[in-house]
């Protein structure tokens, strides 16, 4: 049964980005968004107008430097392949614990409608209910959409981040 990763971010993180569950390739690599076909890193770096770094350690530093935290809605599930549609027996991560670890969170972004749907269905009570939340088009290659259109939708993350960081 695949298991998600520990959260990636520092305690002072302001913005949470939630996927559903790491892909098979990401799990094999032990990396968030480890499939090179997934546009996550390209989108994230483009928001700050920087070229994506190839080294995963540098990508992790980028996340921390920008006061983001990455995690997944599910801690484990049964699944054939990587598609959200094949998920069975999903179990959510502990979001009350997450809020205790990252008390400065100011917004939640779901990296797909699937992630948002699993969160809404499984996380009860919702310890993050007080935070604004946004659903972004999935960065997965399975979400057929031009990169420019995905990036335009993801600009919301940067706008909210600007307010969250400057609002201190």
Structure description:
- It is a single chain.
- The protein is α/β, with parallel strands linked by helices and 168 residues long.
- Helix content is 36%, strand content 17%.
- The strands form two sheets. Strands 1-3-2-6-7 form a five-stranded mixed sheet. Strands 4-5 form a two-stranded antiparallel sheet.
- Helix 2 crosses helix 6 (147-166).
- The termini are far apart.
SSE pattern, N- to C-terminal:
EEHHHEEEHEHEH
Rg: 15 Å
* Oligomeric state: single chain
Roughly how much helix do the residues carry, as a percent range? 25-40%
How would a textbook summarize the main sheet?
5 strands, mixed
Range of strand content: 15-25%
Sequence of strands across the biggest β-sheet: 1-3-2-6-7
Q: Could you tell me the number of beta strands?
A: 7
**Cα distance spanning the termini:** 41 Å
**Average pLDDT over all residues:** 92
Computed structural class = alpha/beta
Shape: globular
Low-confidence stretches: none
The DSSP helix count reads 6
List keywords for this structure.
168 residues; alpha/beta; two-stranded antiparallel ribbon; 36% helix
Task: Set down the secondary structure blueprint.
Layout lengths: L7 E2 L5 E5 L4 H6 L10 H8 L8 H10 L2 E5 L1 E5 L9 E5 L2 H7 L5 E4 L2 H10 L10 E3 L11 H20 L2
Parallel strand pairs: 2-3, 2-6, 6-7
Antiparallel strand pairs: 1-3, 4-5
Can you give me a brief rundown of this structure?
Helix content is 36%, strand content 17%. With 168 residues, the chain is α/β, with parallel strands linked by helices. Helix 5 links the parallel strand 6 and strand 7.
